[in-house]
Amino acid sequence: MKTVAIKSYDAKIDSKKRITLRNALYEYFHIEEYADGKIVLEPRVLVKPFEISKNTLSMMDSSVENFRNGIVSDPIDLSAFREE
């Protein structure tokens, strides 16, 4: 499927080798530069890696506490899923 451009304009590199994107919808971009001079920008939404919510951390703490106190469920038989 071919992508159709919704905007097309010329930009000039400033004295610090920057260009300005007009009305950019994203703050961060992944950039690919090619030998023929083509530059491709792909929008990125950055999130903090390994960020775990307080609720999840609380649930994990509770699960570890239950495990240490022997409050566990019966083992689950997963042998039906074993690949041979």
Could you name the key traits of this structure?
84 residues, elongated, two-stranded antiparallel ribbon, single chain, 2 strands, alpha+beta
Structural summary, described in words:
The chain contains one helix and two strands. It is α+β, with helices and mostly antiparallel strands and 84 residues long. The protein has a domain at 22-71. It has a two-stranded antiparallel ribbon with strand order 1-2. A hairpin with a 5-residue loop joins strand 1 (28-33) and strand 2. The relative contact order is 0.08.
- The helix/strand order is EEH
Number of helices: 1
Rounded to the nearest angstrom, the distance between the terminal CA atoms is: 40 Å
Give the percentage of residues in beta strands: 5-15%
Kindly state the number of beta strands: 2
What gross morphology would you assign?
elongated
Structural class: alpha+beta
How would a textbook summarize the main sheet? 2 strands, antiparallel
Question: Please, what is the average pLDDT?
Answer: 90
Spatial strand arrangement across the major sheet:
1-2
The low-confidence parts are none
What does the radius of gyration come to? 25 Å
> What is the helical fraction, as a range of percent?
10-25%
